[in-house]
Amino acid sequence: SISAAVVAATGHLNNALLDFSTDPQFDRSEAIRLARLALSLDENDERALFIAGLVTAYFIGDHEAAIDLVDRAVTTNPNSYIVWNSRGWVYKVAGQYEEAIRSFERGIRVSPLDPVIHNSLAGIGYALIELRRFDEAVADGLLGGGLLLRWLVRLATDAERERVHVGLHAEPRGHERAAALERTAGRFRIRRPERDVRQELR
Predict the structure, then answer these.
(1) What's the CA gap between 156 and 175, in Å, rounded?
(2) 8 Å CB contact between 76 and 40
């Protein structure tokens, strides 16, 4: 079935990308095979389209084809968080960072309480770093310190690294943490519960 092929392809994709694999080449090959199988079962199913887009972007390197696949996926089902999230990662891999951010944000607006929403937040953080908008990534708490610093070593100038290093190690006061939460909620137009967040974070 399409569902089984997509789930299996996703597992192999994650194994290879997240360094869980004991045989990365096998996982890459299986992800490609299973994504193609899903498409062969129904080339218009959004699940088959998004996994094929991810696999094509990451393992085949055909960014134009990958973008076409995920664009078709969101056209087929514009109300799916995972489809918009996948589109964001494909555009990020293709180097189209602004469009990647728009996709991640759209997914978050579609499902603001999604249990894997951190995946989209991390994607936004990575895209902001590629755009050299380091302060935004730090201020909105979109990446953990370790991930952020690893990318800074590769991309940032000495002055940028120093500025972000200071920001990461400054201990925020309660009202500053609350303000960061409110900025993040505002970015995605998330309606927060009616409670005093600042009081809770003191």
Answers:
(1) 29
(2) no
Q: How does residue 145 score in pLDDT terms, banded at 50, 70 and 90?
A: very low
Classify 132 in phi/psi space as left (phi over 0), alpha (psi -120 to 50) or beta: left
Q: What is the pTM of this model?
A: 0.72
CB 67 within 8 A of CB 90: yes
Which of 35, 69, 70, 37 has the alpha carbon at shortest distance from 55?
Answer: 35
Cα gap 9→33, rounded to integer Å: 8
The mean per-residue pLDDT over the stretch 75-103 comes to: 94
Strand locations in the chain, DSSP E? none
pLDDT higher than 90, residue 125: no
For the chain, the first-to-last Cα distance in angstroms comes to 51
Q: Rg of the chain over CA atoms, in angstroms? A: 18
Rounded to 10 degrees, the C-alpha dihedral 128/15/65/111 comes to -60
Stretch 160-180: mean pLDDT: 48
State the pLDDT at residue 163.
52
Residue 66 is encoded by which pair of tokens?
């990958």
Taking the C-alpha atoms of residue 202 and residue 199, their distance in angstroms, rounded to an integer, is 6
